[in-house]
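Customer ticket, subject: "Can you confirm the structure for Cys-tRNA(Pro) deacylase, prolyl-tRNA editing enzyme YbaK/EbsC?"

Message body: Hello, I'm evaluating your service for our small team and ran a test protein. I'd like someone to confirm that this is what the system normally returns, since I don't have a reference to compare against.
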Amino acid sequence: MDLPSVGTLEALPALAHPDLVAGPVAAALVAWPHAAAVAVTPIDPDLADTAAFGEAYDVPAEASANCVVVAGRRDGEERIAACVVRADTRADVNGVVRRLLGVRKCSFLSMERAVAESGMEYGGITPVGLPETWRLFVDARVTRIDLAVVGSGLRRSKLVLPGALLGELPGAETVTDLAR
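Agent reply: Thanks for trying us out. I re-ran your input and got the following:
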């Protein structure tokens, strides 16, 4: 099976390189039936942020997906969701996401909490291997990307996989117009 590749990235089989992904990502991949279609690629961690990454590795923004973590409260209960959107869009946090969570206001989860609770590095958080208690919203546009580039849980690598598979992650909810 050919590994997915985009831009100038070097595609390696993710299952064969658990050292290039965060622990929760490696565990999730082992349990996921679609993992054979997932590649991992090492990158310069100083170039992990979307704009710098795209320029350095010839990856267009519309082929990259970002994962942001938000939270809101209702009746004393905190509700957390990870939102996956194309890198050329922004999650509609206080519109669509707020309504999906059923809260009055959403805000981004603090960096410290996002890192501690996900077991991933800030700037590398990915929808693969997130805590089961978090909801996972995937913008429908992401599922239409031929090959999507997302975080690996570490800043020093990225995952590459068919965008449609992001909508097949455990617990994923595909949402039309999640992003603007």
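A couple of notes from the result: The longest helix spans residues 23-31. The longest strand covers residues 65-74. Feel free to reply with more questions.
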